[in-house]
Amino acid sequence: MASGTGRRWITLLAMPPTTEHERALQAQGYTRIAGLDEAGRGCWAGPVVAAAVVLRDAALLQPELLAGVDDSKQLTAAMRVRGYEQVRAAALGVGVGIVPAYVIDAFGIVPATRLAMLTALLHLPLLPDALLIDAVRLPEVALPQEALVRGDSRSLVIAAASIVAKVTRDRLMDTADRAYPVYGFAAHKGYGTDAHRRALARYGPCPLHRRSFAPLLHVVEPGTEAAL
Fold first, then answer.
1. Residue 130 clears pLDDT 90, i.e. is over it
2. HSE-up of 17 (CA within 13 Å, CB side)?
3. What distance lies between CA 128 and its chain's CA centroid?
4. C-alpha to C-alpha distance for 16 and 65, rounded to whole angstroms
5. DSSP structure string for 92-121
6. Contact predicate 75/163, CB 8 Å
C-alpha cells in the first residue's frame, strides 16, 4: 500500500497547470501575458514550431473553461486537437512561428527555437506586455519575461501554447508524409523511432531531415544502416 507521502507526490505530479504565474504578473499591472512553447526540438526531421498565446481574462479568472488543457506531451492526439479548439476559442491572440530544417542546420537548434518563438510573437495580433516561456529566455525582446522549467505543466498559458505548437507541427508532418511517404512521418512526426531509423538506412535523408543532428551526420546514401 502506498504511503501517505507517496500519495501526496502522486497528487502533485498529476496536478494540471495553474494560473499562479499569470496572476502574479497581473498583480504587477501586466494585462496581456503571452505564453510561449515549442514542438519538435528533438526531432530528426521537419521544422521546429513555436506558438505564442494570449488568453482572455475570462480564461485566466476561470481556468476550468480550459479543463483538459495541459502539457501537450501528456495528452493523446485526440485530446490535443480538442484542447487546440478550446485554446482558439479562449484566446485573445495566437501566433505561430515555423523554422525549417535547413535553418536549424545553419544556426543550431537553440537559436532556431528562439527564432521560432520570436516569429510567433510577431504573428500575434496584439502586443503582449509580459511573457511566460517554457525554459527559454528571449534576450532580444524588451519585455518582462519569466522562463519556467517544465512551464508547460505549470502555467496554463504556456500549456495552451504547447498544444497549439504541437498540433500545428503534427499537421505539417502529416502533409510531409504525403510528399515523402517512405519515411512514415505521419506516424512518428520526425522523431527518432526505430521505423524512422530503418527508413533512413534504406532511403537516405530527404530535404526535411536535419543533417546537423548526430544520427544523420554520416547518412548520405541508402545502405548506411551501420552509421545509424
1. yes
2. 33
3. 19
4. 13
5. EEEEEEEE-HHHHHHH-HHHHHHHHHHHHH
6. yes
Report the distance separating Cα 134 and Cα 131, nearest Å.
Answer: 10
- pLDDT, tens digit, 9 for 90 and up, residues 139-172: 999 999 999 999 999 999 999 999 999 999 999 9
- Report which of 66, 11, 64 is spatially closest to residue 35, judged by C-alpha positions: 66
Domain boundaries, the chain: 17-182
Distance CA 194, CA 208 (A): 18
Cα–Cα dist 111/114, whole Å: 5
Amino acid symbol at 140: E
Give backbone dihedrals phi and psi of 36, rounded to 5 degrees, phi first.
-130, 140
Which amino acid makes up residue 125? Answer: P
C-alpha cell at 43: 526531432
Assess contact for 44 and 53: CB atoms under 8 A.
no
Whether the pTM exceeds 0.85: the reply is: yes
Residues 76, 82, 88, 90: is their CA dihedral positive or negative?
Answer: negative
Strand partners, 50: 38, 97
C-alpha atoms less than 13 angstroms from C-alpha of 106 in its C-beta half-sphere = 7
The candidate with the shortest Cα–Cα distance to 154, out of 53, 70, 49, 55, is 70
Instruction: Please say whether the beta carbons of 224 and 206 come within 8 A.
Output: no
> In Å, what is the CA distance from 123 to each residue of 70, 146, 159?
23, 20, 19
Q: For residue 54, what is the enclosing H or E element? A: strand 48-55
Residue type, 135: A
Question: According to CATH, what is the number of the domain 17-182?
Answer: 3.30.420.10
